[in-house]
Amino acid sequence: MIWIAIRMLTGDAQKFYGLVFGIAFSTLLITQQLTIFVNLIERGASGTYNVSSADVWVMDPVSRTADVNFPMPSTALDKVRGVTGVEWAVPHLRAGASVRTSEGDLEGVSVIGVDDATLIGLPKRMAQGSINVLSQPDSVIIDDVGLTRMFEDGRSPIGERLELNDQRAVIRGVADAIPSFTSQVTLYTKYSQALRYVPGTRNRLSFVLVGAEHGVSPEELTRRIEEQTGLRARTRDEFAQDGVDFIIQNTGIPLNFGITVLLGFIVGVAIVGLTFSLFIRDNIKQFGALKAIGVTNGKIRKMVAAQAGLVGLIGYGLGVLGTVFFIWGFSGNPTFKGFYIPWQIPLISMAAVFVILALTGWLALRNVLKTEPASVFR
Amino acid sequence: MAETDIQAATTAQAAICSRGVTRDFKAGQQTITVLHGIDVDIRAGELTYVVGESGSGKTTLISIMCGILWPTAGEVKVFGTDIYDLSDTELVEFRLNNIGFIFQQYNLIPSIDAANNAAVPLIAQGMDRLEAREKAVAMLEKLNIGNQAGKLPSQLSGGQQQRVAIARALVHEPRLVVCDEPTAALDAASGRKVMDLLREVAVAEDRACIIVTHDNRVFDLADRILVLEDGRITHDGSEMPEGH
Ligand SMILES: Nc1ncnc2c1ncn2[C@@H]1O[C@H](COP(=O)(O)OP(=O)(O)OP(=O)(O)O)[C@@H](O)[C@H]1O
Ligand SMILES: [Mg+2]
Predict the structure, then answer these.
(1) Which of A65, A321, B86, B107 could be disulfide-bonded to B90 (CB atoms 3.0-4.6 Å)?
(2) Are A222 and A259 members of one domain?
């Protein structure tokens, strides 16, 4: 009977494609939007992820994220170095500045000052040049995504001169970095240099980056640092999560994406529900005949479930494939740099597809189950 | 109906035994009684017609007799089984194993070919699909449309579709075959052929066939004719009464 059910459905090409399209469309919308959502809010943690060697971030008690920070007096560095379990601690500066390009354009950038001696604080990989270029005078390294914004014509930025706070800066390398949430241009330079690029206040130390001694857990270390210095300390994972939470709490993004995902779901229910009902209505005489001949309601349920299952399988597959192609197709676009599909998302859209089909299948099925077999003689 | 007729009927092999079958329909506030206590036996080995004017209750009667419409009162035994005493599932299974249906609109499944359509009851019984198809093709051959087995219903003429429907009604060798107006859409010659065919394959010592028809061109082919008027049987004999 399952075979007959499948043939009934695939034989009605128009409705079959309609159903598959409905599910594929829903799956695509839900999967794709959730993927973009997750990847976007994870950008809230890019500042933390870019400095993968730091186990613990130490900051002023009011600082919230890598980008929302309040500077500390430079004595904080020594206080942190004095805590047992700290293998190394380096200064880290993150601040906004305005840059004037050689064309005279003004652009807001974020300046990141990394430890002069160790260069801890730079992204792990370089796209062009080496990190050692920072030893040359007035050197800065630009991030690859910011590069495409600042130099839209695609010319090489190496050797370009910029003006920051009346100071000269020369781009000598390009970092392969995870872009920030705003995709703002980021310039990396030595800490001592950064102090000159960022307009001066008395306190400039944004963070102290800490490496834990072997055998000391980051959690334990943050506890000790907070206890002994009165500063705020977060493990890398905690601080990454803080960045994500900040985006979630302070932007309309969850709501916006939530609405789109909901729309995808509703459109799916509407298309699939309507088409399914039409399909069942067109075949109601056939179902009535089957019931008269001697097919139980239980078997009819299985038939409709098989039809829903087939539509779900194909539609879902196409939808997920569509998302994969979408992400893959845009992977060259800097806005989508590093986007991936977290494994939970296809599961979520699968659950949504299941709910759509269960709901619409059940609605359509009610008509069949209500059909009295005697109706076939009328 | 004479007392002796009823006696005779019950002693012969009774395919259907209907006692006091009444059926009401609700039409708005009103209740209309369509069948008024039908007592009749349908004998095996006979081709029985139910005739009567439109609205006289023919379809209602055979629907009740074959277990797809519940009577308001009365009981129906089909080959000794009190069918409305069965549970819903048991009744469905009883129909599947004992009754063949030929609907006026053939209600074939448009997207599967003639042989598979004819095989539906066997597939529903759980037979392997290919085996069922083989039997269905054999039945189609018996009905002289074996060469159409691979065609979709839409590729067949009305008469051919009906033969497929007949094959579907007979393929699982049911003991009772029920048809509502099988010849309404056919010309006289085809109508007679269908009736001959039904007699040939659906009527045997332990089998019965009951047919609702308006079609006076085929009245002479019946073994027995029941005339229904306003929900009552007013004639029961081997020929139509005078004046019809
Ligand atoms: N489901 C129903 N609901 C309400 N009334 C019904 C229903 N089925 C049949 N009736 C009524 O019962 C009466 C008999 O109907 P039935 O279909 O048995 O007549 P029939 O003899 O088969 O007529 P025809 O020759 O036109 O097919 C009609 O008056 C009809 O309106
Ligand atoms: Mg009728």
Answers:
(1) B86
(2) no
Residue whose CA is at the smallest distance from ligand 1 atom 2: B25
Q: Point out the ligand 1 atom lying closest to the alpha carbon of residue B52.
A: 21
A378 CA to centre of ligand 2 in angstroms: 6
Q: Which atom of ligand 1 is nearest to the CA of B63?
A: 18
DSSP states of B53-120 as a string?
A: -TTSSHHHHHHHHTTSS--SEEEEEETTEEGGGS-HHHHHHHHHHHEEEE-SS----TTS-HHHHHTH
Give the residue numbers spanning the domain of A330: 2-43+252-377
A8, A286, A295 member nearest B124 (Cβ): A295
**Quick one: A278 and A222 in the same domain?**
no
Instruction: Give the residue on A whose Cα is nearest the Cα of B104.
Output: A377
| A197-to-A158, A163, A165, A168 alpha-carbon distances in Å | 19, 9, 5, 9
Please, which residues have CB less than 5 A from ligand 2, an ion?
B 59
Please give the class, per CATH, of domain B1-79+175-244: alpha beta
- B178 min Cα distance to partner chain A (Å): 10
pLDDT tens, B136-167? 999 999 888 899 999 999 999 888 898 899 99
Q: Is residue A213 part of a domain?
A: yes
Q: How far apart are CA B25 and CA B55, in angstroms?
A: 13
% of residues, chain B, pLDDT over 90: 60
At B13 the pLDDT is 63
Q: Are residues A260 and A359 in the same domain?
A: yes
d(CA B142, CA B197): 9
The pLDDT > 70 percentage for chain A reads 100
Residue whose C-alpha is closest to residue B65's, from B101, B26, B24: B101
Within this chain, do residues A13 and A80 fall inside the same structural domain, yes or no? no
Pocket test for ligand 1, best of B30, B33, B58, B105 (most atoms within 8 A of CB): B58
**The pLDDT value given to residue B244:** 60
pLDDT in tens, B30-76: 999 999 999 999 998 899 999 999 889 999 999 999 999 999 999 99
Give the pLDDT of residue A100: 82
Distance B237 CA to ligand 2 centre (A): 21
Instruction: Provide the pLDDT for residue B4.
Output: 45
Which of A16, A295, A296, A377 best tests the B interface by mutation, with the highest count of B CBs <10 A?
A: A377
B35 and B57 Cβ atoms separated by less than 8 Å: yes
How many angstroms is it from A376 CA to the middle of ligand 2?
11
In the predicted structure, residue A211 carries a pLDDT above the cut 70: yes
Q: In the prediction, which pLDDT does B28 show?
A: 85
What residue segments make up the domains of chain B, in order of their start? Answer: 1-79+175-244
Residue B20 Cα to ligand 2 middle (Å): 21
**SS3 sequence of B129-163:** HHHHHHHHHHHHHHCCCHHHCCCCHHHCCHHHHHH
Residues within a 6 A CB radius of ligand 1: B 25, 27, 34, 52, 54-60
Respond yes or no on whether ipTM tops 0.90: no
pLDDT grade for B9, boundaries at 50, 70 and 90: very low
Cβ distance A296 to B112 less than 8 Å, yes or no, reads no
Nearest to B93 among A291, A294, A377 (CB): A294
**Cα(B64)–Cα(A124) distance, rounded to whole angstroms?**
82
Q: Is the same domain home to A284 and A207? A: no
Same domain, yes or no, for A94 and A221? yes
Report how far residue A264's alpha carbon sits from residue A237's, in angstroms, rounded to the nearest whole number.
32
Pick the closest to residue A253 from A90, A57, A41, A108 (CA basis).
A41
Q: Give per-residue pLDDT as tens, B197-216.
A: 888 877 888 889 999 988 88
